[in-house]
Amino acid sequence: MTRPITAGVDGTEESRAALDWAAREAVRRDLPLRVVHAWRYAEALAAADRDTQRGWVSEGVTEAVRTVSERHPGLTVTTDVVEGAAAHALAGAAAGAEMLVLGSRGHGRVLGFLLGSVGQQVIAEAARPVVLVRAGDEATAEAAGRDVVVGQHGGPEDSAATLRFAFETAAARGAAVRAVRAWTLPPVFAYSPGSLKLLDDAGGLEPYERQALAEALQPWRERFPEVPVAEHVEMGSAAQVLLSVVGRAQLMVVGRRARRTAVGARIGSVAHGVLHHAGCPVAVIPHE
Q1: Beta-carbon contacts of residue 258 (< 8 Å; ≥ 6 apart)
Q2: Contacts of 143 (CB under 8 A, 6+ apart)
Q3: Among 117, 137, 157, where does a domain finish?
Q4: Are residues 131 and 147 in the same domain?
Q5: DSSP 113
Q6: What does the alpha-carbon distance between residue 274 and residue 118 come to, in Å, rounded to a whole number?
């Protein structure tokens, strides 16, 4: 089954930027584009019944799609106007998508995203990758020779979905992958005879981390031999190390482990930190 790239739109400048980004990515990957708008009937507009309000929404979506279709005449585009809460509707739309692309208000040209409750809930609940795009994240950044930067952690299986997305995206764009692995000194009580032997065999902590990154990348290098790969291993928190190379990124790819608390969904400190400080589009990939 061919999964479309799905863009959530709401008439804002940010959602138009997300739609443009999604359309370009759909063309690169030779995939259809699905445009989704979630809306709720506004009882305060007493002069307009439900069908009339839905018609207004549909007209706005049609106009946005018309612009995209004119820019990409070979692109297959479908639209859906879904009544219901935005977060629930968008998370549902993501289920059948290759990725869900959303717009987000940004702090400015240097800092990252203002992630509202809807965006955070969608990222936490979506079973597929979610890409956040700001107004101002233009196509010129994609053509500037920047890398697709991806965070890797743990063993090869822990970051498989994240690395797959990064390599597929880089291959579609003719870009390089910059794989980043952060490490910190473990507490003394975490050492065991087995772990000490592994570190000794690798020649120390940093060589061990470099070896772990190389092993995680190996299957993806073999699958995508045309994609250049740069490896970056640095001591520090994962979010800080990723953000240290954000200036080289046309897209930042991170994984997330969503969890629910009494005060709502949480998407993990790394994804949260990158989303709030990255100056480029960010793809958040659920762990398989």
Answers
A1: 123, 124, 125, 265, 266, 267, 268, 286
A2: none
A3: 137
A4: no
A5: B
A6: 18
Return the closest-CA partner of residue 177 out of 111, 226, 122: 226
Residues 6+ apart with CB under 8 A from 111: 276, 277, 279
**Which residue in 153, 155, 175, 156 sits closest to 166, CA to CA?**
175
pTM of the complete model: 0.86
Domain end, chosen from 137, 168, 200, is at 137
Separation between Cα atoms, residue 268 and residue 128, nearest integer Å: 16
8 Å CB contact between 160 and 288: yes
* Whether residue 218 is found in the same domain as residue 268: yes
Amino acid letter, residue 87: A
β-pair type (130-133, 282-286)? antiparallel
Which helix (H) or strand (E) element contains residue 80? strand 77-83
pLDDT, one tens digit per residue, over 55-84 is 767 787 888 889 899 999 999 999 988 887
Task: Answer yes or no: do 242 and 102 share one domain.
Answer: no
Contact 239, 273 (CB under 8 A): yes
C-alpha dist (Å) from residue 193 to 3, 30, 155, 196, 203: 47, 51, 20, 5, 15
- Are residue 4 and residue 114 in the same domain, yes or no? yes
Q: Does residue 266 have a pLDDT over 70? A: no
Specify the pLDDT at position 106: 56
CB atoms within 10 A of CB 221: 15
Q: Letter for the amino acid at 100?
A: L
pLDDT digits (tens, 9 = 90+) for 27-60: 999 999 999 988 766 655 555 667 777 776 778 7
193 and 65 in a common domain:
no
| Structural domain containing residue 79 | 1-137
